[in-house]
Amino acid sequence: MPEAVIVTEKLSRNFGGVRAVQNLSLEIPPGSIFGLLGPNGSGKTTTVRLLLGLLQPSSGCARVLGFDTRTDADRVRQASGVLLEHDGLYERLTAEDNLDFYGRLWRLSDRERRKRTQELLTDIGLWERRREKIATWSKGMKQKLAVARALFHRPRVVFLDEPTAGLDPIAAVALRDELGELARKEGVTIFLNTHYLAEAEKLCSLVGIIQSGRLLAVGTMEQVRCGAGGPRFRITGTGLTEDTIAGLRNGGLAAEIHGVDNEILISLQTGEIEDVVAYLVRAGAKIREVRKQEASLEEAFLSLVEGDESCSSISA
Amino acid sequence: MFFDICVIARKEWKEYLTGQGLKGGALNIVVLVVVFGIFLPAQFGPTFMKSPINLLFWAWVPAFLVIAAVADSFAGEKERRTLETLLASRLSDRAILIGKLAGIISYGWGLTVVCLLLGLISTNVIYARGRLLLPPLDMSLAILTLSFLVAHLTAEIGAVLSVKATSMRQVYQTMSLTWMALIFGVSYGAKAILGFLDKETAAAIVNWFVTMGAAENRLSLVGGVSLVLAGAGLLLFQLAENRLKWIRCVPAS
């Protein structure tokens, strides 16, 4: 297995009494798009700042491309591309000048800068507008340019903090498409902070869910969906009466059951689906179909976040 | 690091030339050069070139130019949310700070030197009548040194203030008011001190300042002032660098 590009071990950061990030442990393999999902104020931006070495951890450690973020922060930033919460573009300069400035910072040659500017601006459909001052541009265009700037020096890892925040739905979809396309073409590892679940579902091969600085779940989309509760099944047939459903509920086989018109939707708790079917048959029901249903990322996210909130309120 | 400093300074200049408002713009620069380089020297004539007031005037010009540039460069960049991305780049705090200061000082002092040369040309064109009018050599050296150090010190003060300021206007106003207080304070303070002295001593002091004494006195005075300014500049640089480190570590609001 290739060595992970980003590794964190019990990474924590406190601001006074506030625990912004708590015991965050992650491993992100090369070439993947990792989405860190969480509500506002959950610790996503602090995590990115810790990974870039802009903040020192209170405890734990992180390595990006093998460099320790506490001692080799300069080398981490040297090898990374960044789009923080704000686009960070110089509005008095043209699109070309903005890219040229960052190209110079990364010591690209004149030829390389010109080539890269044309390549990236063409890819995002802004080549014709390269000589315009970007102050006149829409937010969507600026965000695209900021993504291009983050990728300009061909970094091996790119950190994007809420790249579609504040965009209208059409611009957000367009930027997501461009982002996915660019990531595939450039072959970089992307660490994406977002609270848009659709964005994570569309772009990410791995996701983590963070709440109050704690990582609640991490894995592939499938693993996170399943980890949010037991598997769910839709059972259709006849004889699925109220009494039968009540019996299932009392028998402790299911965590959650909804029944409507000879159809039940069941989330398993500890048992197997075979046990449920056997019970229903014994109770006189005739089963026509049993279909496994995947929880959406949104359901998984809400289940994890709400679950965590109720745990926090109980412990408080 | 030299290359990084040049890249930052180059970007600062691009912004001066294309900017609006506090930070230049090509038209603003032309207006400043015409006023300080042609209009004022032409108004005052050859006396202006030789009088010690000249020294004070050319020490004030770079401060005037630098205040606007430094407020925009640090506090303005923070306000426009571009500083955070720059700090997240591969550059060190020191390279960013020196690059910005180099851009600001080359703007303030560079324009002052351009104005000086233009002033020399315009005074000669209007008043020379066949002979070359030149300021004394020691005066010229003193002007160049003092104007550079004033530009440097003003830039450093601006950098220190900007890092913790909430807005570019706040820095601009604070620095403008400080300079005004300094100019009026020194003027009225000197007047008040002279009022306490007997007439003869006061007249001797005034005469010394007007003629600036002998050239060697003038040079030692400028040398002393230069040392103080340079020392203060170095201290402020350290303070600005520490504050920039601090800003890197503060979560974005």
Question: What does this molecule look like?
Answer:
The complex is a heterodimer of chains A (316) and B (253). By secondary structure, chain A is of the alpha/beta class. In chain A, 39% of the residues lie in helices and 28% in strands. Chain A contains eleven helices and 14 strands. In chain A, strands 6-7-8-3-9-10 form a six-stranded mixed β-sheet, sandwiched between helices. Chain A has a four-stranded antiparallel β-sheet with strand order 2-1-4-5. In chain A, strands 12-13-11-14 form a four-stranded antiparallel β-sheet, with helices on one face. Chain A is elongated, with a radius of gyration of 24 Å. The relative contact order of chain A is 0.13. With 253 residues, chain B is an all-alpha fold. Chain B has one domain. Helix content of chain B is 84%, strand content 0%. Chain B is built from ten helices and no strands. In chain B, helix 4 runs antiparallel to helix 6. The longest helix of chain B is centred in the middle third of the chain and has 35 residues, at 93-127. Chain B is globular, with a radius of gyration of 20 Å. The two termini of chain B are 30 Å apart. At the A-B interface, helix 1, helix 2 and helix 3 of A face helix 1 and helix 5 of B.
SSE inventory with pairings:
The complex is a heterodimer of chains A (316) and B (253).
Chain A: E1 6-15, E2 18-28, E3 33-37, H1 44-51, E4 59-64, E5 67-68, H2 73-78, E6 80-83, H3 95-105, H4 110-123, H5 139-151, E7 157-161, H6 169-186, E8 189-194, H7 197-203, E9 206-211, E10 214-220, H8 221-227, E11 232-238, H9 242-250, E12 254-260, E13 263-268, H10 273-282, E14 286-293, H11 297-315
Parallel strand pairs in A: 3-8, 3-9, 6-7, 7-8
Antiparallel strand pairs in A: 1-2, 1-4, 4-5, 9-10, 11-13, 11-14, 12-13
Chain B: H1 2-18, H2 26-44, H3 46-50, H4 53-79, H5 83-87, H6 93-127, H7 137-164, H8 168-196, H9 199-211, H10 215-249
Helix pairs in contact in B: 1-6, 2-6, 4-6, 4-7, 4-8, 6-7, 7-8, 7-10
